[in-house]
Amino acid sequence: MLNHLVHDQFTNHQYEALENADRHEYSVRSENSIFFEVDGPYRAMVLPASKEEDKLLKKRYAVFNDDGTLAELKGFEVKRRGELKLIKIFQSQIFRVFLEGTSLESCYAAVARVADQWLDILFSRARGLPDAELFELITENRSMSKALESYVGMKSTSLCTARRLAEFLGDAMVKDKGLACKFVISRQPQDLPVSERAIPVAIFSAEPAVRRQFLRRWLRDPSLETADIRDILDWGYYLERFGSVIQKLITIPAAMQGVTNPVPRIRHPDWLAKRVSTAANSHRQRHITDAFRKVSREEYLQKAAEEDARLQEAQRDIEDIGAPGGTSALARPRSGVCRRGGKRVAIGPMSVESAAARIAELGPAPDPSEAYGEWLAHAKQMWKLKRQLRALRLEAGVEEPADGTGLGQFFARTHESLARGTWQVLQWAETDVAGELKAWVRVGGQLHSVRVAVPRTLYVASTVPVPEMARSAYFTEARSMILPRAAMAQQSSHLYRCEMPEVEYVSHRSRWSSFFAHPSIGGVYETHVTPVDRALIRLGATAALGTAARRRGGDAMALGDLESRTASTPWEANELTYALLYQTAASDGRQFFALAEPGSERGFVWVVSPGRAAQLQLPNLERLYRESLAAAKSGEALDGGAFVYPEQVQFVAKAFSTAQAAARAVGAQLARMAEERRGTMVLVCHSAQPARRLQALIPAIGSFPTVSMPSHHADRALPALDWQRHASRRMVASLLGCAQWLSERVALAQYADIPLGNIPADAPLFLADVFFARRLARANHVLWWSPAARPDLGGRQDDESCEPPATAVPEVNLPGSYGAACAELELRGLPIATVLKAPLVNELEGAMGVFGFDGATIDDDDGTGAVAAAAGTADAPGRLQLLSTADGGVPAATLQLLRTLLRGWWQEAERENPFATMMTDHFYRWLTRPAARLFDPALAGLVQALMRKVFMQLTAELRRLGMRVVHANLDRIVVATGKATLPAAHASIAYVARAVCERPLFEHLTLVPQQFWSFLLWMDASNYGGIATQAPDEPPTDSKMPDNGDSSAASEPRIEMLWSMKEYLPPVVQSRFELTVAEFIYKLAAFHSQLHSRAPHAARGPGAATAIEDVHSDNEPPDADSLVATKGAFYRRLIGQHFTRKLLAALPEIREACGPTNRSADARFPQLPGSQLFRDRRANPALEFVKYIATVFGLDVPATNFVRIMRRNLLALLEVGEFAPEAEFANPCERLVLSRVVCDFCNYCRDMDFCRDADLLPVLQEDGTVAGPSEWLCLGCGCAYDRLRIEERLVEQLHAAILAYQSQDLICGKCRLMKQDNFSLQCTSCAGAYKATIDPDAIRAQVSVYLDVAVLNRLTMLQELAQWSQGHSSVSA
């Protein structure tokens, strides 16, 4: 037949031959030289398959005759010389078995039996097979066409065998070409490729000692004792080669023919397994080719011509149009819709019922293969009626019936649920398209990904009307909007709202920038609000499609089509399924990936070991999980989680040498998981890397809504040894903590109305930003939202400082000794009380108008935020007054909105809402943290100024109630109660705390007793000591107190000391200083106790000094003389005799121990941040010891005269004058405080003093030098801080100090007036010389402290800035 067709269509009829040369006559003939050879008939043909997807193997087949003999065999390994004999024998046996069986299943079952026989040999490691036969089956035989020396620099199994034969037999055996290399592949060394693991077979014929020697060398295993071939072979290599043949001949062809895998031990390739599972899944997503088929061009043109002919025959004359019985639109009765009572009601025949009836009247559609034109006309009418019916149902609010089946009905139901249901948004995610977000929406228990277009919204302020804006479709006038600064509103009289597609803004950014740079433009606001931020502020986590958008229909959705809704019933965290993706990495490239799916009881682990062989050293993960789960259940740590943990999880582990290969494997598994659980899975990512970087490494993460789980510092550090075991334990711990964390995160997301996947690690800061931004937007305020440290002020933010206005830190310190009971109180809620009671602050001080409250009456009871004018018209809308700060005016309405927000949190916190309590705890940190999106230094400075006033009012109130304020700052207050006994002091403190909180100004404050002292020697917050004890009728409340299980021991008095200045003495002197001061405190406390028993009403505290000096006062009690005499005798014995003699004897010992001959580290001053003693070579340890002791003893005022005499005698022994400059005490402990540092893991907030906090000081070696920086750990959870972020904040702090010095004002040294011009050299009023308000020596000392901290802690950026500042200051000096 082929020959006939080819002869008919491809014969050449143009061949001509010359017949007569004279007459030029030619004869024409036809020729066709194409002929086909017909083989067969045959009984069967076997074709192998390729392991790659959608590829075919050429020139490989096996053909069988009818009698079962093999007619032809081509391309198989039976004829290949270098192939394993195992594979050759298997193929020789298997071909004739293909003819067995009566069906495909029986045929492949017969073939599988042969394969299973050989697989049993490999899986059992050939235990019942003789060694000679095993060598014959697995030995590879290769011949080298050239001499060994010709293959320099190349690698292969043959070359490896030849080199090892040369080691074994000598170089003469391998010098010629044509060497036959017979070898097997060994399992070791595991870090080498196959080409370097070839073992010559000849070595197994050598003597045992020689064989063992060379095998140890080649296998790199000195402990090798046995030479059994079965322990040496790489069985995985041979299984892979043999399995590849089985896949090509049996499993892949069987799967393509719809037969279940006949050899289950040999797995399908990934692409084939996915294709088989898709074909077997009844709920799989169908392809468009399942519903439509592709037609040829000729068939399409033929059907189109038939349709045109049918339509032409159906045309009628113009007189027949509209006649009864016609088919035109004019002949059909018209239907319409009118409005009755605000509702659209169908009239005429087109109601919901009539439309459904007309659809039923159309009947079944004709067969398109027989009458395509009639089928098309029927389908068009059906589509039109269904479209009208859907519109009528939307108008009437009738649900679309869901009884249909098929792909179309599935899409229809999905669209209907999205159009009518309430969206529970799990995440707003960015896409590759600018301005387009992917919303992961939960509707009706299913997850959907919806594309939402978010426009770019800007606010443009102008000093004059701009005609271009008035004519543009992008701009509208925004008269009611309030700018972040009231002064800006006065300067810019015209404000426009600009809304454009994000693509337009991004593609023409330069053009828009040039337009906004026009001199008439006063500022452009909200340029840093991203599409995700806009969606969170406007919609949040609950939304629904608007009525207009539902009526319009279509697939394209914009942010304006959605409306914010309030969730009627909160959804539970256990309504979704979750998977945990765990990732940790080391700096040397080692990485650990894990993917755990508790719902399926399975897990996957991928290990990356670069630069070495990909090997697994994991523990038994199944047992580790079971043991950890049992321990967690015993501690009841798994109650109330988002999912239930299975009793066991099966883990599959793989090793890779590159991170890219491991990432591809993770992505492939995520893709398979997405196919299996489409629309129900939430992926929890636990990684130290940012989410964007992790998704760039593994793009398949974008197929799920993701939630970022914070990582502990133990998850970010991998030890050098046994690191896989450490990472496995951390992974299991993360998995067991995931459910509880998810449950809390879901509750937090529902409280804040923020999608679960959009809550960052520092949740309180971001939630406060979103809460405040929503209130500002509802009150028509323009946002100053900015991710940088400066707020977005329309381009004028560079004119303001990024730090809050410089206000003195409120702190009270009264050094001295206090013989009466003292108490430490923790001050809580000062920022909250300040903001909530802001209108009362100026009223109590009598300073109205300082902050703008004179022109506005701010309601303090409700949260309406009403601001009304107070000058005669209290009901009239008041103008916004300026709240004066150092940097500019903040509208009063902004502070009122802040008060309203804070009041809402406080009221919820009183109802024991844990999330509202969290927000109030982090309120002040959010207000003053430059990392906050709505950070405003002017607003923060305003609140800090008000806090200073409230703080001063509080200290005054404590003094009025009889307390003596020893030390006070924004966090704690130390007071002297004046009570002699602890029970009386405790009762007094309870009364004072209650009385203070009853005042209206302090009703939101809380004073919590933390510590009590029966005697206190106080210098400052870093240097004090005393007899500390707990109240006898209260349990211990201070976390610093010992807790050894004995409550009685906790209430025992004890000496507690904190002298930071002793750390700057040599170590041999520190212990002597501590013992001396402790003895002094103990003897003073004992004396005051005896004194109280004799004179219970004697004066105590610093005022007690007058009892010794005022001997002849008329107001003294009758026994005053005896009391003064007793005190004088006590101090004379204690200081004049005991301590003076003791210290005079100790000074020579100190001078000898710290002399120049002793060069040990204990005899030198330690190298600490801010210490000048380490650099001063003239510093004398004995002299410093005397100054320290005298200063501490001098804190007790009654002992001043005795301490002065003791100091003079000690200095005389050191040959130093009493009034010499070197004898003056200077506190060596400088301060460098970084305030409000927050842990990313537990949100614990603290102030870090890099010069005084012991946990922040560098680690010292035995010789006293710095060994390296200490690890900065959180005091709350032990997690390591981000050193880079802390260094950046220190750089900003130093830069702000240098900027403040450079931009300071000059004042006159005589009259203190400020310099008004730039050219005068002397004061214009008194001719005095100008001087700086900031002392240059002070700023140099401050820079020096920064430099010390940077050098000792290896902060390179801070060190460069400090060195640059020192160099320029020396030049300017």
TrEMBL record:
Needed co-factor(s) = [4Fe-4S] cluster
- Catalytic activity reported: DNA(n) + a 2'-deoxyribonucleoside 5'-triphosphate = DNA(n+1) + diphosphate
Cite the InterPro entries for this sequence. DNA/RNA_pol_sf, DNA_pol_B_thumb, DNA_pol_e_suA_C, POL2, POL2_thumb, Znf-DPOE
Annotated localization: Nucleus
**Gene3D superfamilies, per the entry:** DNA polymerase family B, C-terminal domain
Report the EC number(s), separated by commas if there are several: 2.7.7.7
What are the annotated GO cellular component locations? epsilon DNA polymerase complex
Please list the residue ranges that the record marks as compositionally biased, kind Low complexity. 1097-1107
The residues forming a coiled coil are none
* Keyword entries, A-Z: 4Fe-4S, DNA replication, DNA-binding, DNA-directed DNA polymerase, Iron, Iron-sulfur, Metal-binding, Nucleotidyltransferase, Nucleus, Transferase, Zinc, Zinc-finger
Q: Which family does it belong to?
A: Belongs to the DNA polymerase type-B family.
Q: State what this protein does.
A: DNA polymerase II participates in chromosomal DNA replication.
Protein's name according to its UniProt entry: DNA polymerase epsilon catalytic subunit
Organism field: Coemansia guatemalensis
Q: What is the lineage of its organism?
A: Eukaryota, Fungi, Fungi incertae sedis, Zoopagomycota, Kickxellomycotina
